[in-house]
């Protein structure tokens, strides 16, 4: 049997970016850590993006994950909010990529399906199942819980042909 793979899941947001780290060994998952990187609401956009970058870089440096997974952007009716979320998501993808990690992306419905078994469900269901799958998990915000769900999703899908090919290409 091989070594455990440490996975960081990232739930991007401009105010709060959640992160969650699990270790995957075969079919077993183990909670490592989770938290939330915050930006100052009143700061300029560039400053806020720097705060997210620096906070995530600190987490990656301390936790040393092997792989990363980020949730894809949910497009809503507010174009300005969607654009800002996209910029935060860019930071969430840039930081692990700059650290040399392959970054997988998952649609919100794929994350829900991996964690609760169906593609549609509410946050409470997801958070409850994260606690079932990772009994020792703690999270300070719903964003950290969502990030753990993203990491769980990646642990379930990381053996897919597409992911293995992406890993070989990098």
From TrEMBL:
Family, per entry: Belongs to the RuvC family.
UniProt organism field: Mesorhizobium opportunistum (strain LMG 24607 / HAMBI 3007 / WSM2075)
GO CC terms of this entry: cytoplasm; Holliday junction resolvase complex
Keywords tagged on the record: Cytoplasm, DNA damage, DNA recombination, DNA repair, DNA-binding, Endonuclease, Hydrolase, Magnesium, Metal-binding, Nuclease
Gene3D superfamilies tied to this protein: Ribonuclease H-like superfamily/Ribonuclease H
Assigned EC number: 3.1.21.10
Cross-referenced PANTHER family: CROSSOVER JUNCTION ENDODEOXYRIBONUCLEASE RUVC
Purpose of the protein: The RuvA-RuvB-RuvC complex processes Holliday junction (HJ) DNA during genetic recombination and DNA repair. Endonuclease that resolves HJ intermediates. Cleaves cruciform DNA by making single-stranded nicks across the HJ at symmetrical positions within the homologous arms, yielding a 5'-phosphate and a 3'-hydroxyl group; requires a central core of homology in the junction. The consensus cleavage sequence is 5'-(A/T)TT(C/G)-3'. Cleavage occurs on the 3'-side of the TT dinucleotide at the point of strand exchange.
Positions with a binding annotation for Mg(2+) 1: 11, 143
UniProt-annotated catalytic positions: 11, 71, 143
Annotated binding of Mg(2+) 2, by residue: 71
GO molecular function, one term: DNA binding
Name the UniProt record assigns to this protein: Crossover junction endodeoxyribonuclease RuvC
């Amino acid at each position: 049997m091989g070594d455990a793979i440490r996975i960081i899941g990232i739930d991007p947001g401009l105010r709060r970016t959640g992160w969650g780290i699990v270790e995957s060994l075969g079919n077993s998952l183990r909670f490592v850590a989770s938290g939330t990187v915050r930006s100052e609401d009143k700061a300029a956009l560039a400053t806020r993006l720097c705060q997210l970058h620096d906070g995530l870089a600190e987490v990656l440096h301390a936790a040393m994950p092997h792989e990363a997974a980020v949730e894809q952007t949910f497009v809503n009716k507010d174009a300005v909010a969607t654009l800002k979320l996209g910029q935060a998501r860019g930071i969430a993808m840039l930081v692990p990529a700059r650290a040399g990690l392959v970054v997988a992306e998952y649609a919100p419905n794929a994350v829900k399906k991996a964690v609760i078994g169906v593609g549609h469900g509410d946050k409470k269901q997801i958070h409850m199942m994260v606690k079932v799958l990772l009994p020792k998990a703690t999270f300070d915000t719903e964003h950290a819980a969502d990030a753990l769900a993203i990491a769980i999703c990646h642990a379930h899908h990381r053996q897919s042909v597409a992911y293995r090919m992406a890993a070989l290409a990098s």
